[in-house]
Amino acid sequence: MNIDKELIKCVEKIDLNLEKRLNENYKYINEILDSIKYSVFTGGKRIRPILAMKSYELFSENNNYDNIMPFALAIEMIHTYSLIHDDLPSMDNDDYRRGKLSNHKVYGEALAILSGDGLLNLAFETIFDSFKDLGDLEDHRRKILTGKEISRYSGLKGMIGGQVIDMNQDKKEIEDDELLYMYKTKTAALIKAATVSGAIIGGANKEEIETMRKFGYYLGMSYQIKDDILDKSEDENIEKLTYLSHFGVKKSDRDLKVFSDKAKLELRKLKGKDINFLMSLTDILINREV
Amino acid sequence: MNIDKELIKCVEKIDLNLEKRLNENYKYINEILDSIKYSVFTGGKRIRPILAMKSYELFSENNNYDNIMPFALAIEMIHTYSLIHDDLPSMDNDDYRRGKLSNHKVYGEALAILSGDGLLNLAFETIFDSFKDLGDLEDHRRKILTGKEISRYSGLKGMIGGQVIDMNQDKKEIEDDELLYMYKTKTAALIKAATVSGAIIGGANKEEIETMRKFGYYLGMSYQIKDDILDKSEDENIEKLTYLSHFGVKKSDRDLKVFSDKAKLELRKLKGKDINFLMSLTDILINREV
Q: Which residues in chain A are contacts of B135 at CB distance < 8 A?
C-alpha cells in the first residue's frame, strides 16, 4: 500500500462528496454558499473524514465508502465551522487560516457567523439524510448511535466545551486536570467522533468500538501536542495556554510519544484486522513538519 | 378549556424540561451554561414548543408529552440560538431583547457566539438522545423523519437561509418572490418544523402531516406580518425591509387576515380532531398587542 496515493484517493472522494452536498439547489443564497465553500475547500488535510473512512474499512465487509461518507462529511463540516467561528475577531481574531485570509476577512463577520451556523446545521442534515432505507433496524441502530456520538463530541461536553475553556483560560494558570480536559474536548473529541463513527457504521462490536474510541483519544491528544510544538517554533511570542506552556518542552515531547505509542497499542488489539494504514497515518501525523 | 391556563401549563412543562437538560453535569464550563440559561429563560413565549405539543396532542392516543418533548425543546433551542446570533453587533446589533440586555451585552461576543453554537448543537443532541428504545421500528421511523424535517427547516434551505436574505437585503428593493421566500424561511420554517414534528411523532398520516405543514406555513406567515406591524408602531424610524415596507399597510393588513384564515381552514380539514386550542392560539397570536 502506497499511503500517499491512498490519502489522495480519500481526499478526492471526500471533496467530491462535499461539492455534491454544497452544490444542491439553494435559493437566493449564493453568497453564503460561496463563503462556506471558501472555507470548506481551503486546503484542509481532511484528517477526520479520512479517519472515519479508514476506521470503517477495518470492520466493514464491503470496500465502498458510501455508508460512512455522510458521517465523515458531517465531522468535516463541524470541524470547518469551528475554525470559521474560532477565527472571528471576538474569538481568536485570526486574519489568516492555512495561509489564506480567514473567512470573515473575505466575507465579513456576519456572513462568517452564519456560514458557521449553516455548516453545523448541514452536518446534522447530512446525518439525517443518510437514513434512506427505512426498513432495516440494524442500519438504523448504527446510524442513530453514530449521530449520538457525533453530536455529543461536538457539543458542550465535547468540542464547544473545550473551546470555551480555551478561550477563558488564555494566559491564566489552570490545574493539570482542567488542561487535560481541555485537550480531550477541544481536539481529541472530534477525532474520537471520527474513529468511533467508522467503527460503528462498519459494524464493529462493543469492545472494538471502545478500542477505536481510545485510539481516537490518544491520537487526538498527540495530534494536538504536536500542533502546539509546531506552533511554538513558528511564533516564539505566542502566549497562549498550551500543553507546551503548561507542562514544558520536555514533558510535551515525552507525552507526544507516550500518547502516540498508546494509540498504536490500541490498534494492535484489533486481532486479524489490517491496521497498517492507521498505524502509518499515526506516524505521519505525529512526525509532520507543518 | 381555559386557554390561558393551558398555555401556562405548557410553558411550565417546557421550562422544567429545559432546566433539566441544562442542569446536567457539565465540567468547567459554568459561564457558558449561565449565558445559555440567560437567553433560554428570558421570557420567551414558547410558541414553537407549544405548537409542537399541541399538534402532537391532536394525533396521539396518549395524553402525555414525553414523546414530543425532545423535539419541542430542540426547536426552542434552535429559535433561541438564532436570536442570540441575530443580536450580535455584526448582525442586527441589538442591545436589548425582550426588554433585557441581549446576550452579548452581558456575556461578551465570544461567549454569545459559542452559546449559540452550543444551543444549536444541543438541539440535535437532544433529538438523538430521544432514541431510547432501540427496538421499535415505527418509533425510529417517526423520530428520524422528524429529525430530518427539523434539520432542514433550521438550515440553509430554512431559517438560516432566510436570515441571510434578510441581512443582505436591508434597505434594498427586492422582488415579491424573494421577499415571500424570505418570510417563508426566516420565520415560517421553524413554525412548520413545530407543527410537522408534532404531527409525525403523534402518528398522523401523510395527508394529515401535509395539512399541519400548511397550517404551520400560514400561521408562520401571519405571525411574522403581525410582528412587523407591531414593530412598525413601536419605532417609526426603522428602515428595515419588511412585508409592511415592501407591500404597504393595506396589503399587509389584508394578508395578515388572508394567511390566518387559511391557517384555520387547514385545521378544519382535520375531521374528528379537537382543533379548539390551535384555533384559539392562532387568533391569540394574530391579535396580540405585544
A: 137
Burial class (CB in 10 A: 0-12, 13-18, 19+), A183: buried
> Is the confidence at residue B252, as pLDDT, over 60?
yes
Taking 60 as the threshold, does the pLDDT of residue B26 lie above it?
yes
Nearest residue of chain A to residue B111 (CA atoms): A164
* CB contact (8 A) between residue A134 and residue B154: no
Residue owning grid cell 507525552: A255
Question: Going by DSSP bridges, is the β-strand pair B100-101/A96-97 parallel, antiparallel, or unpaired?
Answer: unpaired
Mean pLDDT throughout A165-186?
86
Residue A120: name the closest of A62, A171, A184, A76 by CA. Answer: A76
| A74 to chain B, closest Cα gap in Å | 13
Nearest Cα to A127, choosing from A192, A188, A58, A201? Answer: A201
**Residue among A289, A278, A285 at smallest CA distance from A256:** A285
Residues of A in contact with B122 (CB under 8 A): 155-156
C-alpha distance from B236 to closest chain A C-alpha (Å)? 26
Q: Can you spell out the DSSP letters for B3-53?
A: HHHHHHHHHHHHHHHHHHHHTS---S-HHHHHHHHHHHTS----HHHHHHH
Cell numbers standing for residue B59: 394525533
Q: How many residues does chain B have?
A: 290
Chain B residues close to A182, C-beta within 8 Å: 28
Question: Largest Cα–Cα distance in chain A?
Answer: 58
Q: What is the mean pLDDT of residues B235-250?
A: 81
Alpha-carbon distances of A82 from A90, A130, B107, B157, rounded to whole Å: 14, 23, 20, 21
Alpha-carbon gap: B155 to the closest alpha carbon of chain A (Å): 6
Interchain contact, B28 vs A165, CB within 8 Å: yes
Partner-chain contact B114 A163, CB within 8 Å:
yes
Q: Which residues of B touch A125 (CB under 8 A)?
A: 148, 151-152, 155
A97-134 b/e with 16+ CB inside 10 Å = b? beeeebbbbebebbbbbbbbbbbbbbbbbbbbbbbeee
B66 three-state secondary structure: coil
ipTM value for the complex: 0.96
Q: Give A279 to chain B, closest Cα distance, Å.
A: 32
Backbone torsions φ then ψ of B100, nearest 5 degrees: -115, 160
User: Facing residues of B100 across strands?
Assistant: B97
Q: What's the rounded mean pLDDT across residues B211-235?
A: 91
A170, HSE (Cβ side, Cα atoms, 13 Å): 9
Q: What is the mean pLDDT of chain B?
A: 94
- Contact criterion met (CB < 8 Å) for B28 and A161: yes
Burial of residue A258 (number of CB atoms within 10 Å: 0-12, 13-18, 19+): middle
Residue type, A233: S
